[in-house]
Amino acid sequence: MVYEPREDSFLLRDKLLEQFKGKKIGVSVDIGTGSGIIALALSSFSEKIFACDIDAEAVKAAKQKLDSANAGNVNVFKSDLFKEFPGVKADLIVFNPPYLPLGEDDYYDESLHGGRKGVEVTVEFLEQAKEFLSENGVVFFVASSTADIPFLERKLKELKYRFEVIGKKHFFFEDILIYKARLS
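Request: output the structure for the sequence above.
Response:
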């Protein structure tokens, strides 16, 4: 299933464009690219982009969107987080993960649920991302106030990330948070 852009995707995109306005960077990575909206934004300031998604339909949709936008600097492929990634070092890694906590009565949807706490997929991403970050690389990711944010922030500290929330917007029943993190 292709995750169509919603408020979280637009907030992440806008924060990225704000943070990198007037800058050029080398390699960017978009994990969980979905429709390709973030990869398209990255193409405006990155020399090379690697965009992946666990869902084959999402990969197909992202390729079509990026091809029609003439974003030739984006390589789109299927991967579960970094499992199929080439051995690159990225200056920027972006992830809009599934971040809703899975309730007792919920039917699991991999595009929405990030685990019981809502952040298990994000923590797994952060563990793997360390191997792919360049020396001064930075990670941007989305989280929800409905998830276990104290647990997420403890894990960030344990994994030796310095982090800050650079964006926050209230939607319906939650706050969407945009994190920026670097290795200490």
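The mean pLDDT is 93.
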